[in-house]
């Protein structure tokens, strides 16, 4: 008996973080969507408007993006209205004949709202967590409660590392068997090593990150002068901007390192490769990281990585491609010294080829496809069955979450009366005749 | 002379030819009577009845009645203000396109677009904070913004397609669409 053909899904990707914004989540959503389209699934993205970019836009490979005209409220996230987004989400779900709703990132209010409404309407939902969170501060406690609410009735969840999975399971109380680990990938076609390695006796250490506390900018301030003292042939190139830039400038002035520490400021994503290939070692001093995309990009460009042993970072690269250190200035200095001695053995082209095999978006898409298949097999449950899970979220929170769900359910039925699903026109699937960026997907 | 018509719960599309010249093409989108307005009137009457009850039987101040009347006027104006009866597109191939909005009050607003100014008629998806719908627009030469063919009514795409095809024929635009997967 022959195997039945693989199920084709109609996926709605929802996140506040999407192009033209740049970052790990944005990249992930875009490349995953492109590869899912290649696998024959239908993918539609919903995000908020960016400046005057609102309405429907088409991206490479007929990827349809709804830029809903809701303005960002804080850190590129929309204002949490709970029910304000229900009419538009319902319309999109019906007109695009969606079967699976996939939300990205804990900090995206649009994602939380969309998953809430999708569950009310009986759709299968998948959530991807891209970050690690604490348990102690007020912000984390609040966020963890929101996560518990969102994930109480989620079909499946995805994390980018095993550390991230542990963190998500602890924070949300989600059953571990519902959480899959699918690491990020890198578009190796965009991050090729230089044809010739930077020559001479000089060793260039590259740092590209936001200059904030979480990314270990304070550690950098202590590490750089010590490395420069121990190795006169080492030079630093620092790309990125943030509140800690002032401290780096003060350090450069205090230790008279103007000729050895170059501060580039914010680096556009398109120019990241050109900065990376000018160096030999990539340094990241993050204090918390679920999965560091920058490490993959640097390794793809043939740079040896020195990183702090935090979060999911130890899972990212094989031991011969990364030197790990504790988030302590002395330990990081030692790790950089070790990396300097390892440099002669590093072949950037070999490293790039290994990265191409280890991390590609097609593999990520195939693994995500399995998660969608699992989600679609989850039994449909009535509101009453779902409410029992919301009630278990806490003495008061449980009752509040249940009330939110009941009100959402009533609002949905009111919308069904006001504009029946039959009145919402289904959109034909668009296939553009020209194949744009075919090469990008072939290489990734 | 009605050539063709389609109806749904909210709109009726009529393809018409009034003039002896076969070239002049008229397309109407007629708004069908909605039950929503009766609900608005019923709500307004209920508010007024409550105010009168409080004034006559409970001896409350007459200001209650005045305020309820003001509220009713505001409610009716807000929800039923400037109701549109129909919107029409008069296509004169050698001359231009006239867009007409007919109000229930009898008022008609006409807007003429010369044929040379129309680069292309396009069917596009409109996204608002609460919904998505299809709309028919004209790309105008030298203008940064498109002109909406139906400014007030939101007919379904099956009605818009007929008007779009007629506009394409009149402006010598190719009926280009993306390939639709079956």
From TrEMBL, chain A:
<dbReference type="GO" id="GO:0000506">
    <property type="term" value="C:glycosylphosphatidylinositol-N-acetylglucosaminyltransferase (GPI-GnT) complex"/>
</dbReference>
<keyword id="KW-0337">GPI-anchor biosynthesis</keyword>
<dbReference type="Pfam" id="PF08288">
    <property type="entry name" value="PIGA"/>
</dbReference>
<dbReference type="Pfam" id="PF00534">
    <property type="entry name" value="Glycos_transf_1"/>
</dbReference>
<dbReference type="GO" id="GO:0006506">
    <property type="term" value="P:GPI anchor biosynthetic process"/>
</dbReference>
<dbReference type="GO" id="GO:0017176">
    <property type="term" value="F:phosphatidylinositol N-acetylglucosaminyltransferase activity"/>
</dbReference>
<comment type="pathway">
    <text>Glycolipid biosynthesis; glycosylphosphatidylinositol-anchor biosynthesis.</text>
</comment>
<protein>
    <recommendedName>
        <fullName>phosphatidylinositol N-acetylglucosaminyltransferase</fullName>
        <ecNumber>2.4.1.198</ecNumber>
    </recommendedName>
</protein>
<feature type="domain" description="PIGA GPI anchor biosynthesis">
    <location>
        <begin position="48"/>
        <end position="137"/>
    </location>
</feature>
<dbReference type="InterPro" id="IPR013234">
    <property type="entry name" value="PIGA_GPI_anchor_biosynthesis"/>
</dbReference>
<dbReference type="InterPro" id="IPR001296">
    <property type="entry name" value="Glyco_trans_1"/>
</dbReference>
<feature type="domain" description="Glycosyl transferase family 1">
    <location>
        <begin position="202"/>
        <end position="340"/>
    </location>
</feature>
<keyword id="KW-0808">Transferase</keyword>
<dbReference type="InterPro" id="IPR039507">
    <property type="entry name" value="PIG-A/GPI3"/>
</dbReference>
<keyword id="KW-0328">Glycosyltransferase</keyword>
From TrEMBL, chain B:
<dbReference type="InterPro" id="IPR044215">
    <property type="entry name" value="PIG-H"/>
</dbReference>
<comment type="pathway">
    <text>Glycolipid biosynthesis; glycosylphosphatidylinositol-anchor biosynthesis.</text>
</comment>
<protein>
    <recommendedName>
        <fullName>Phosphatidylinositol N-acetylglucosaminyltransferase subunit H conserved domain-containing protein</fullName>
    </recommendedName>
</protein>
<comment type="similarity">
    <text>Belongs to the PIGH family.</text>
</comment>
<keyword id="KW-1133">Transmembrane helix</keyword>
<dbReference type="GO" id="GO:0006506">
    <property type="term" value="P:GPI anchor biosynthetic process"/>
</dbReference>
<dbReference type="Pfam" id="PF10181">
    <property type="entry name" value="PIG-H"/>
</dbReference>
<keyword id="KW-0812">Transmembrane</keyword>
<keyword id="KW-0472">Membrane</keyword>
<feature type="transmembrane region" description="Helical">
    <location>
        <begin position="62"/>
        <end position="80"/>
    </location>
</feature>
<dbReference type="InterPro" id="IPR019328">
    <property type="entry name" value="PIGH-H_dom"/>
</dbReference>
<feature type="domain" description="Phosphatidylinositol N-acetylglucosaminyltransferase subunit H conserved">
    <location>
        <begin position="88"/>
        <end position="151"/>
    </location>
</feature>
<feature type="transmembrane region" description="Helical">
    <location>
        <begin position="38"/>
        <end position="56"/>
    </location>
</feature>
<dbReference type="GO" id="GO:0000506">
    <property type="term" value="C:glycosylphosphatidylinositol-N-acetylglucosaminyltransferase (GPI-GnT) complex"/>
</dbReference>
